[in-house]
Amino acid sequence: ILYSVDIFNAAKSSIDPYVATIVVGAMQVLGVGLSTAVIERTGRRPLLFASSFGVIICHITLGTLFLLKTLDYDISVVGWLPIVAVSLFSVAYSTGVGPMCYIVTNEVYHPDAASFCSSVSLFVLYFAGFIITKFFPAVGDLIGMHWCFFILVICCIVIFLLVLFLVPETKGRTKESILNELRLGKRLDGESQKGATIQSIS
Length: 202
What we know:
This protein has helices at about 5-10, 15-40, 45-70, 80-110, 115-145, 145-165, 175-185, 190-200. α3 runs antiparallel to α6 (about 145-165). The protein is built from 8 helices and no strands. The protein has 2 domains: about 5-170, Up-down Bundle (Growth Hormone, Chain: A); about 175-200. One of its GO terms (cellular component) is membrane. This is Major facilitator superfamily (MFS) profile domain-containing protein. It is found in: Membrane.
């Protein structure tokens, strides 16, 4: 988002880069509102799956677009594609991957370690954000903008796999049930029924 104007300029978008950036910001607000509206209906994992998959597709699209531009292909016919990809990225990120890191971390940590673990998680999150913000332009100039997006694709695939194999569904469940699943690697039958009862009541 911070470099959306530069991305649109580099991609030779057919839409004014500053207007496109305003649209992207509006789409980000839409994504946050959508997440707020559906998070308690769909659960955490479905939103994380959909969000990470959407982010992967958007990064692949942008990476491919810049790769074709690097290979001197005429991409003017799809001059609208950068704003569509970045806008959909904003919606996808703001719907799941963005806000969920704050919600799920508070639900999966043991109460005795929650403060410390949440602090470490937020430190890693913001440090990674700093690294990306600081070095994105330099890396783009060094190895090409397309490789920046393909590297981000790899990172997002890792997130998708972590959600698939490690992150439990926390909606409508007690802290004890969540911690038991993390400790044992599966839900106990009684806990599954209890979680289902809580969800039906809510």
